[in-house]
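Tutorial handout. Part one gives the primary structure; part two gives the three-dimensional structure as tokens.
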Amino acid sequence: MNTSAPSPIYQALGLATQALFLSNPNPRVGCVIASASGVVLGQGFTQKAGGPHAEVMALRDAQAQGHDVRGATAYVTLEPCSHHGRTGPCCDALIQAGIAKVVASIADPNPQVAGNGFARLRAAGVQVEVGDGAEAARELNIGFFSRMVRKTPWVRMKVAASLDGATALPNGASQWITSAAARADGHAWRARACAVLTGIGTVLDDNPRLDVREVPTPRQPHVVVVDSQLQTPPSAHLFIAGRACYIYCAAPQDVQFEERKRALEAQGAEVIHLPNPQSKVDLAAMLRDLAHKGVNELHVEAGNKLNGSFVREGLVDEMLVYLAPKMLGLGLSMAQFGPLTALDQALALEFKSVEPVGEDVRIVARVRGRDGFGITPTSSHAVDA
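Part two.
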């Protein structure tokens, strides 16, 4: 065996990344089946929702190559599922195929699984080992873990700004502060999200499509509009056939409201009335509703007022910021909130990555303490005797 080759679980993690744009709302999972001597017999990753999961794809790959997997080890990045959804339980498929051992990175946080897959494997005499690659597997599925554990999506706020933090000139002009390379990279982050969110101000000012155009993608994310007074025009460009559109509003439910609602529903939108006591959209309740609709990662591309509301209410998990090497002076900020009266009131972030993208810089900064879920001491290197 070539000792320089990556271990099968890390090969499986590499496969899982191929489901990044594909598997939503299901988790991104990879699977490698290897013989006792380390020879790879089959491999695969989770397909489009309703299609085969990673384990089944790996079993099919092995069968297509004429390999017998009895007595082999399945390396999988997430606990094999144990419930009947749109597909059958993967743990049963592994048992029926004669797999002798399963090495999984992390337990599935889905309450319908949550250890049941491991239990069924062990009950059938399959050896189970858990823990290798847990952090990487959770990170790849941060939105899925957020939805299952916190019951809300992972909220990632995308901003394009000048080096001095301006996202637009005072007159609102913003196209384009950053380069074409940064815009394409931003579309790749859109593509991995389940839904893209904006506010009514952006819809009225820019009439965006909010779809993925700059990178290949097998699916388009849903679109979400925060529109308190239900002002979205039925002619807006964001209405794209075959794509779910959710419009959250707080307007009085009078005759005019019902007329506007029917016009938007005729364009395929779902209008959700979700007011808070200030007659604005209840953003926290909206996130819970989006989680119920299967949204794992929510990609926010909004104006500084709505961005400020997300920050002020403590709803942001991560910032995706593109900084251009230019200074704009007075202009619109990334997020309008405050004023703060003490420095310790600032939103505390930690850099996850800082990388050049074309002539710009991409910063991924995570709100401190927002990602402390889904990894437990009991999930690390638990091995059957």
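Part three, for discussion. Residues 180-192 form the longest helix (13 residues). The CA atoms of residues 356 and 362 lie 6 Å apart.
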